[in-house]
Each structure stands twice: as structure tokens, then as C-alpha cells.
Amino acid sequence: xxxxxxxxxxxxxxxxxxxxxxxxxxxxxxxxxxxxxxxxxxxxxxxxxxxxxxxxxxxxxxxxxxxxxxxxxxxxxxxxxxxxxxxxxxxxxxxxxxxxxxxxxxxxxxxxxxxxxxxxxxxxxxxxxxxxxxxxxxxxxxxxxxxxxxxxxxxxxxxxxxxxxxxxxxxxxxxxxxxxxxxxxxxxxxxxxxxxxxxxxxxxxxxxxxxxxxxxxxxxxxxxxxxxxxxxxxxxxxxxxxxxxxxxxxxxxxxxxxxxxxxxxxxxxxxxxxxxxxxxxxxxxxxxxxxxxxxxxx
Amino acid sequence: xxxxxxxxxxxxxxxxxxxxxxxxxxxxxxxxxxxxxxxxxxxxxxxxxxxxxxxxxxxxxxxxxxxxxxxxxxxxxxxxxxxxxxxxxxxxxxxxxxxxxxxxxxxxxxxxxxxxxxxxxxxxxxxxxxxxxxxxxxxxxxxxxxxxxxxxxxxxxxxxxxxxxxxxxxxxxxxxxxxxxxxxxxxxxxxxxxxxxxxxxxxxxxxxxxxxxxxxxxxxxxxxxxxxxxxxxxxxxxxxxxxxxxxxxxxxxxxxxxxxxxxxxxxxxxxxxxxxxxxxxxxxxxxxxxxxxxxxxxxxxxxxxxxxxxxxxxxxxxxxxxxxxxxxxxxxxxxxxxxxxxxxxxxxxxxxxxxxxxxxxxxxxxxxxxxxxxxxxxxxxxxxxxxxxxxxxxxxxxxxxxxxxxxxxxxxxxxxxxxxxxxxxxxxxxxxxxxxxxxxxxxxxxxxxxxxxxxxxxxxxxxxxxxxxxxxxxxxxxxxxxxxxxxxxxxxxxxxxxxxxxxxxx
Lengths: 298, 506
Prior knowledge:
The structure holds 2 protein chains of 2 kinds.
Chain A: E1 2-4, H1 9-22, E2 32-38, H2 43-53, E3 59-67, E4 74-83, E5 86-96, H3 103-107, E6 117-120, H4 133-136, E7 140-143, H5 151-160, E8 166-168, H6 169-172, H7 175-184, E9 192-200, H8 204-217, E10 220-226, E11 231-238, E12 241-247, E13 252-256, E14 263-266, H9 272-281, H10 287-294
Parallel strand pairs in A: 2-3, 2-6, 3-5, 6-7, 7-8, 9-10
Antiparallel strand pairs in A: 1-4, 4-5, 9-11, 11-12, 12-13, 13-14
Helix pairs in contact in A: 2-9
Chain B: E1 21-25, H1 30-45, E2 54-59, H2 65-79, H3 86-94, E3 96-100, H4 106-122, E4 129-133, H5 140-149, E5 161-166, H6 173-186, E6 192-195, H7 202-213, E7 226-234, H8 243-246, H9 250-268, H10 277-289, E8 291-292, H11 297-300, E9 301-307, E10 309-311, E11 314-316, E12 334-341, E13 351-356, E14 363-370, E15 390-396, E16 400-408, E17 417-424, H12 437-447, H13 456-474, E18 480-483, H14 491-497
Parallel strand pairs in B: 1-2, 1-4, 2-3, 4-5, 5-6, 7-13, 9-18
Antiparallel strand pairs in B: 7-14, 8-12, 9-12, 10-11, 12-13, 14-15, 15-16, 16-17
Helix pairs in contact in B: 1-2, 1-12, 5-6, 6-13, 9-10, 9-13, 10-13
């Protein structure tokens, strides 16, 4: 790890290149630059998660930590290139004093040329991510409504501030549920009359999953809060009974369908790296998320 | 009725197989244990198998369900790519059944029918079953016949039955046609899935992406700019425990007929209208039909047998000393040949194919080697170290693409030029989301998605190309011996030298 104090964006970029040369591999096959806007509390987990995803999507990870509290403007950097954590390049930058307001000026010289830029806010995010200085040159902007103090309010903000290219980890947390549900309906089950989604109080994934189902089936949706973690169950009223998927533990769920024996299915809770890997697989706008978030009724 | 939960604009939902099960014939073979069973577990672990998925083993063993489950368990523990999770295993295990019986015993198939029907009822497999024949091709007729007479092979409008077969698809054109006819009497063409695991590799599919998604390669992809193409699949291992299979088959039948000709087809084919199965197949068939062998097979093919020696610091046996091999065997463990493609794009560009066992290292690659620049405005000495430009698809290991071109040597007063390489490597393959070829292919079988499976026409075209070479070799006596751990018999170099070319060292 290289530490630079009182440095600049250009000097950090030069230091990354120098480190690459020192390791004997000046050319790299990086596919994107990931900008993480974090605070001291969230930076470590978010950076570690991204670094492990770099095995799959080789990338340059720039973590910007705003430290505005009353000091002179100063940039401090920690740089590591291709370590045990993953093959990517990681720069953790602390933006002190007034500089905290000008993260974009630090980021610009660090963006890899002519490759996609992805912005990720693991904690609080701007109201309109796409209009923020960082968001403006990012083609994909990842937020996490579940990390907000008031997740439901965060969803409202996401809805108001949505621009194509936005996406939220709360939506990625629905993917496995959505995938199991979609598979169940590959064999026609008839019309759906009513939808009930149960889960952790104020969990945004519960709301997004319900909204998606309601939109697909054109049916009413009911949300039931409980004290479990995340989404706990989905129940659909059909012509001839109910179909339900109920989480049983951290890794499995039970699927019940009319006229069929109940079956166990794999439904592991996913880690942040797994969610990030999913987010980075496609970098064009997620239209389905767009349609769910903009039509959200909350 | 379309599924309201599936939408083209939904990019995240993975394809999951619908209700189904698989019946595995040949449960103790290497392939079943090292590839098929682990792939099924990995698919289950990644959530791609339907709830209630069932795996039925069929063999002449005095086993109960639990014994077979133990075999699968051990295979999974040893060979699966994804971490072992007890919950996944428990779900899979609940659907494991075993039918004990001789492959030629009609009563055993009745029992299999009963087990399958029971699974349909109890586990909801919906009558959809794939029969995976991981058995020697000599046993196909008896198994297929029984599948037919027992009614197990019968497709209905709401329940599919599919059959999966592995290479070798015959040992020459005639036997391939017989095999196809035989399979065809039991399963319709769309229900037959021939596995060529090379086609399941991401890097092989990437050949088409690189060629047809870019503007910078395709204009050069023809005889105006390409000097020759070298397709190599080298293995560092010997025949291991496969003497019974390998002797009499040899390297050309084992590898060139399927893998290398498929790689050739993907490298040389014209742009398909779309990537739908029928369109890609049409282009592959067209280019394979245009493949011609040289007139003088003695001058343009080479073969060899590995001799005892040292490989990477370990003493190894020669082919003729391997257990179970006839000391007078004429089977080749190294095969190389030149073919030409008679069409406008490729006329005059030789394609060199080679494969062998006990070579320097394990590597598969397709190297497109370009012509030299028509004029080099440098001193002759300055470009002495400049070779031909090349674009190499690295199929395995170290998957990626290498481009080779000339660049100025720094700090030389004259314009010294030397070859440099530019490497692209897409991530690393051990991440959970980058599937093994067998996972991809088995999932495609269960979903019923055919593009990555060769149809019988491609198989037969492969034999049409290879048969004359095999006939010629059959008259030539024993192949040359070559040193284990090197790059094969010296005659392969003469073969290229005659054309004024040389093999690149992969």
C-alpha cells in the first residue's frame, strides 16, 4: 500500500501507473472505473466488496471520503494495486476541508480513458444522482435505499430523482426472489388476483418486489411488515388456491403451489459483492427497475 | 400463454430450467463423476435448477438410492466448482434415485418408468426428463431400443423427453450415419443434444463476438491479409486410464473431428443472419462443406506417438508402454493436418490443425497469422526480429486474446523493430458467475436451447473431412515416436516448412 499526503488527483493517477510499472505489468485490461462516494463508516466494507468483484470485472476503484470538518483543503490517498484483495487498482482518497465539496475535480484525472464509469453511493446519495457532479459522467449510478435512515423516504427520493442508468441495491436484492417467481410461472398458473409480500419493516426490497409483481400481474398488492430480516414471503391468490414462497432460513425457502407437493428451493441471502457483481454485469439502463421505481405508489 | 413475469427489458432474471429431471446412464465413468454430477450441483447451487429437480442413476449395481447419492456426493465434494453447501446438497439429494439393472433388461426399464412417473407425481418433474448417455457408444443401441419400447422416449405436447450424447459420434462417416439413424428412430432431431463441451466455453463463443461485433478485425479476416491459421489443442497428460477408449480411436478422431473442426468453423464462417441456432448452423455447415484436404496427404499431415521420457520434471511412460495398450498399436497420440477452404474469403489460406498428448503444456488456441507488410521501409537488420502479426484466441487456460505486432525497440539509434504482444484477459474464471462448459450445456439441454449443440450434419461433415486422412494413415504403419514434454514429432515442422511456414510455439 502506498500512502500519499497533501497530494492531487494527477499525482494519484501517476502513482497508480508507477506501481503498475514496478509490478511489471503496465498494461491492464480494466473494463470500468468505479467511483464510491462513502464516509468513514461505509468506506471499508464498500471498497472491500468492490475489490472482490474486480476478480470478475477488472476495474479501477476510487473511493472518495468526504472529511469536511474544519481543516485546510487537502487530499490524502491510500493506493493499492493488484493485491490479495483482487486484481483491480484501489485508491482510497480522503478529501479534507473545503475539498470535500469538490470530489469531482479529484476524480476526473483518475477516470480510465474511454471506458464506462459507475458511481456507487453505499450510504446516503444525492437527491438526483444523475445531476450530481460525479453522477454526470457516470453511465450507471448505484444507490442503496436500505442504507438510508428512512428507507421508504429514500425510495420516494429515488422515484423523484430517477434518470435512466440509476439502479438501487434494494432492487438487486429482489433478483433471486423474482427469478424463482418467474420460473414458477413458466408453467402457467392462471390469473393472479391479489399479492401479499411480507418482510422486514420498512425494507425497500419488500416494496419493490410487491410493486414489480403488481405491475406484471395488474393485481392489488398488500405489504405486511414483520420483525424478520429482508423479504420473508410472497403469497399470490390464484383461481384455484394460493401459491407462496416462504423464506425458511438464510439459505432456503419453501415453495407451495396448488395441487403440488411443497418443495424446498435454494434462496441464499446474498452478500454485497454478489449484488455488486450483478449490478456491473450490464451497464445499460435497467428499464425494468426504471418502470418499477417511477410507477411506485408510496 | 406468455409468462407475465418475463419481459425482454428485464436484464437481470437468469434463465432457470422448468420442472424436469435427468436420468444418467453410466454413473461411475470419469465424465459422469468429474463433469456431469459436479455441474448439476453447481447449477443447483447457483439456483438454476427447478425445485423438485430429480436425478436418477441407472446401472448394473446392487445399490440403493443412498448408495448412488453417496457417489454423487463424493463427486460433488471433489470436483464441484462452487462451495459445498449442505442445504443445496439436501435439496438435490431428496431427488436422487437409483435404478439397478442391466442395460439390456426390459424389466429394469419398466422399473425406471415407474420411478420417473413417481417423481413426476411426488416431486413435480412434470414428465420432462433428459436421458444422459454417459456410456460407451457400443451400448447406445440397446439403451435406445429399450427407451423406445418402454415408452420412456415418447414426447407429448406437455412433456418433453430429450437425449444427451457425448463424443465420439461414431468413428467414421458410416458409423456416424448409423448412430444418427439409430438415435433418429427413437428421438426426433430437436430432442437430440450432442455435447461438444468446447462449444460451451465462453472463450469459444467469444470468437463470434469478437469477429462480428467489431469493425477492426473482420475487414482483415480473409486471404488478402491472413497468411495462415493455426489451431492447436495440446494436452500435457497422457491417456491416463482411458486405454480402452483411446486405443484404436487416436488423436484425430478424439479431438480434430469435433473440437478443432468446430473451432475452424467458428473462425472461418461467414456472418450468420442472427445468432439463432438454425442460422449459425447453416453458416458452420457451409464452411465445413468447403473444407478440402491436400492431394498429397503424406506431405501435409503428420502423426506421432509419445515415447517414454520426462515431462516437466516427472518421468512418464510411452504410449506403447501404457497399461492396456497393444505394444504394436498404430493409434496416433499426435495428429496434425493442413486443410484449405475453397471459398472466396479463404482460398489460398491454409488452416493447420494439430492436437496431441504429452506435449509441452496444456493449451488450446486459435492463431490467425497475418501476412508480412508488403513493403518494410526499414533496414533489413532492423526488422530481423519482426515476425508476422497475429491475433490469438486463447481458449484455455488463461482465457483471452493476444495481439502480436511490431514496435520500436526503445533507445536504439536506428528504427529497430521487434514483436510485442498485447493481452486481453476477461476477468478470472473461478468466480461463481462464470460457468463451466458443462453447466452451460446441461442447463441448455434442460431449457431446450439448441444453438451450442452440433447437429448430425456437422458431425458427418467432420467425418467426411477426416475419413480420407484416417484411411491414408491406416496404410502407413506405426506412427513416429516423439519425446514426451516437447511439442510433438519433428515431421510436423517439415509439414509446414514445405509451405514455407512454421508453427508458432503456443
